[in-house]
Amino acid sequence: MLNKIHHVAIICSDYQRSKSFYVETLGLKVIKETYRKERNSYKLDLRIGETEQIELFSFQGTPERPSYPEARGLRHLAFEVNDIDSVKKSLEDKEIIVEPIRVDELTGKKYTFFQDPDGLPLELYES
């Protein structure tokens, strides 16, 4: 019935800061940027890999995301990487705080977490 995840939508508090983070820091490619005057809102379509997308939205007056203790709903967004050590170092070189690398006890794969500018938990998971 379902083929794949088409996109993940993220609402940010500071559009320019988040755009810089996802495009410059994480290296995602811009597909299309749209300013919606009637909403005073941006929508930025970003490419991940060959077909996956992130939609980055800006809306005025959005509430903060509850994180600690964790709330029900989407827990985090995970990115697959080939070499977690090099990606972790690259992010840290850009002054992004990255948690220590752990090993998934079920799969034996390495993973770690960091956050976007709004505190959204992001995961790196080694393929």
TrEMBL record:
Superkingdom, according to UniProt?
A: Bacteria
Instruction: Using the record's annotation, list all stretches that form the VOC domain.
Output: 4-127
For this protein, the record's InterPro entries field holds:
Fosfomycin_Res_Enzymes, Glyas_Bleomycin-R_OHBP_Dase, Glyas_Fos-R_dOase_dom, VOC_core, YwkD-like_dom
PROSITE patterns for this protein: VOC
> Which Pfam families would you find in this protein's record?
Glyoxalase
Keywords linked to the UniProt accession:
Metal-binding
GO MF annotation terms: metal ion binding
What's this protein's name?
Answer: Glyoxylase I family protein
Query: What is the species of this protein?
Result: Halalkalibacter akibai (strain ATCC 43226 / DSM 21942 / CIP 109018 / JCM 9157 / 1139) (Bacillus akibai)
